[in-house]
Amino acid sequence: MNEIEYLEHLLPHRAPMMLLSRVIAIGEETAHCQVDISTDHFFYDTASQGVGAWVGIEFMAQTVGCWSGYQARQKSQVPPMGFLLGTRKFSSTISQFSAGMTLDIHGEKVLENNGMSAFTCRIEHQGEVLAHCQLNAFIPPQASLAAMTQETN
């Protein structure tokens, strides 16, 4: 990726559901984003004083979404809306992410066929892997997405 794009150019999300803080790098088959955990994060729970590790699945999904949006922009297309189909083998070494942590979210494409995609994803903090999974997503072809949009209007 030659120039880091703003998240808003790559994802259809807006506050408060834009959970990522920044894009670090996007390649042909990989994406790297970061999340700053703070007490004002949308999913911060004051009772447990953290963001549940399960939210990491959405961090990973949004990182994959940035990858998809970047690929579309390289073809002069509008970043598509994708659908998280599920995860496999999600595992986390911690139950929550604490305020002050900066998380590195990595996604690597392992399969892409006819809109179906699979990515191996991981969340790191200071080089230590805290969570990982395989994420499965569907991104409708641009023509199908346009038809879906017209039907709902």
Automatic annotation (TrEMBL):
CDD domains: FabA_like. SUPFAM superfamilies: Thioesterase/thiol ester dehydrase-isomerase. Pfam families: ApeP-like. It comes from the Bacteria. This is 3-hydroxydecanoyl-ACP dehydratase. It comes from Vibrio stylophorae.
